[in-house]
Specification:
The protein is an alpha/beta fold. It contains 17 helices and 23 strands.
């Protein structure tokens, strides 16, 4: 039986750890059951942003008359939009070609399943036949997550779309005429924006009292109010039955509060009701790896599972499902696997940022007001609308406007930033500086104070003050324009500095 020094399950963020192992000359295996590149590249954040941007332009054209300019959107070239999107997804083919040429790597294209401690077999996705059986000294589980399908009577027979098959064989030849979206989270909000802007009659259905429940209540309310200009929004409604009739799909909804039932119909149903772990497919319990009540793999602060020499990173551990968080974990995981034991690093999730690329856009880092209070902080809260500053007015936002976005800050009594929340244009870019500030305090180690007297006092107390280290150590929202500035650091090259140590290029 084959035995590997390192086995990585999942070719999204798992590739980051795999690359370290390959560079060290270890005998490695990679297990992947779909296209290489993981959720973000092949069925998530990157291709969806290629669809979001044209939708943004359409909405901005509709907003433009407020500032005295009128645009007509005369044509939407869905074919070109789709071609640009597939060009990103198809990068997975190049990745597979490149990896197949690496001498110390074996790629298993199939579904991995543990059959014993540190022992795995891999089955073909198509035939179900066994294509591999091996042992590993170390395993890194980066197996991601998949769409959670709620128990809706008749939904399998009726048929539906998820983000997985949307970016696959169910991609539409043209935007649907009508669409029901079940769910009110990040994926639901983004697809509701995309298709409503492209002219689809969209109905978004959420069983909870508000959309995007991870956000501040006033952010959720602002999004719902603005969404209602473009689509039908039904919160507190649960999908209970589905059927087809004359090329239309019909869903019966039940009001969560009154139990009253209503029927809605559309050409297609898109389910975006949350994510579930892939740990069940891997049969991780056969190794001694524990999962929590929701099926996510349990990890400690060093990203170790409950089984020695098995680590878990990314969506698979259920902690903040964003690619930039997964990238951050992959760097820590590689350090903790391959570095000296005394240099092990703990994961810190106090400043995890994200953006929801809806219209209006949402940016978020840190705690909400409610979370800060529940964590025992004494806090200040600040709110400011776009219309209150000159640039906001210039962009066409006036006091009282339904689309006049805002910033909300949550700060403790020592003025430490606990959270920042933005809804409105460029929210992802506006929230990122707060991420850097929140990390700035954690990068300083007090030096020996026998510094030369001409070094400023602040730099003596904190040698990283004013340096790029807080940016270097921060997660940068992906995919967003913040990456252009944040990742510029990765291409630092000496001009008149003599380099005598290895310079590591770093992209989060």
């Amino acid at each position: 039986m084959e035995s590997y020094d390192l086995v990585v399950i999942g070719s999204g963020v798992g590739l980051n750890v795999l690359n370290y192992g390959l560079q060290m000359g270890l005998n490695c295996a990679l297990v992947e059951d779909t296209k290489l590149g993981g959720t973000c590249l092949t069925r998530g954040c990157i291709p969806s942003k290629v669809l979001v941007h044209p939708a943004d332009l359409i909405r901005e054209a509709e907003h433009a008359p407020k500032v005295g300019v009128k645009f007509e959107v005369s044509d939407v070239n869905w074919g070109l939009i789709a071609k640009r999107m597939w060009s990103q997804i198809d990068e997975s083919k190049e990745m597979e070609k490149g990896l197949s040429e690496v001498s110390n790597l074996r790629l298993y294209k199939g579904v991995g399943e543990f059959i014993d401690e540190y022992e795995m077999k891999v089955k073909s996705v198509k035939s179900g036949e066994e294509i591999g059986h091996f042992k590993g000294k170390r395993f890194v589980i980066a197996s991601g997550a998949r769409s959670f399908i709620p128990p809706i009577e008749g939904i399998e027979e009726t048929g539906f779309i998820t983000n997985e098959n949307f970016f696959g064989d169910k991609f539409p030849e043209k935007p649907w005429e009508s669409l029901i979206i079940i769910g009110g989270g990040v994926i639901a909000a983004e697809f509701a924006h995309i298709f409503s802007a492209l002219g689809t009659d969209v109905t978004i259905v959420e069983m909870l009292p508000r959309l995007v429940m991870t956000e501040e209540p006033e952010v959720s309310q602002f999004l719902e109010t603005n969404f209602k200009k473009y689509m039908k929004v039904l919160v507190n409604h649960k999908a209970i039955r589905a059927k087809s009739k004359r090329k239309m799909k019909i869903i019966t909804l039940q009001n969560v509060n009154t139990q009253e039932e209503i029927e809605i119909k559309a050409q297609e149903i898109f389910i975006a009701a949350g994510r579930r772990s892939n740990a069940d497919l891997l049969q991780v319990q056969k190794t001694g790896v524990e999962t929590n009540g929701k099926g996510w793999i349990k990890t400690n602060e060093f990203l170790e599972t409950t089984k020695e020499n098995i680590w878990c990173i990314g969506d698979a551990n259920g902690i903040y499902q964003f690619r930039h968080k997964a990238n951050y974990e992959s760097e820590l995981c590689a350090n903790n696997i391959f570095g000296p034991p005394e240099d092990k690093k703990k994961a810190d999730y106090s400043a995890v940022p994200w953006a929801i690329f809806s219209y209006p856009q949402i940016g978020h880092v840190g705690m909400t007001e409610k979370e800060a209070l529940e964590n025992g902080h004494e806090i200040y809260v600040a709110t400011k609308n776009y219309s209150s500053v000159a640039k906001g007015f210039a962009m066409g936002y006036e006091k009282g406007d339904v689309d006049d976005g805002f910033v909300k800050l949550v700060v403790d009594k020592s003025y430490r930033i606990l959270g920042a929340h933005v809804i409105g244009p460029h929210a992802a870019v506006l929230v990122q500086p707060f991420v850097y500030l929140m990390n700035a305090g954690f990068t300083c180690e007090l030096p020996d104070m026998k510094e030369e007297p001409d070094i400023p006092k602040l730099a003596r107390a904190c040698p990283e003050s004013g340096s790029f280290m807080p940016i270097y150590k921060s997660m940068v929202i992906h995919p967003s324009l913040n990456e252009v500035t944040g990742w510029a650091i990765g291409s630092l090259r000496p001009v008149n500095i003599k380099m005598d140590h290895y310079h590591h290029e770093h992209n989060h």
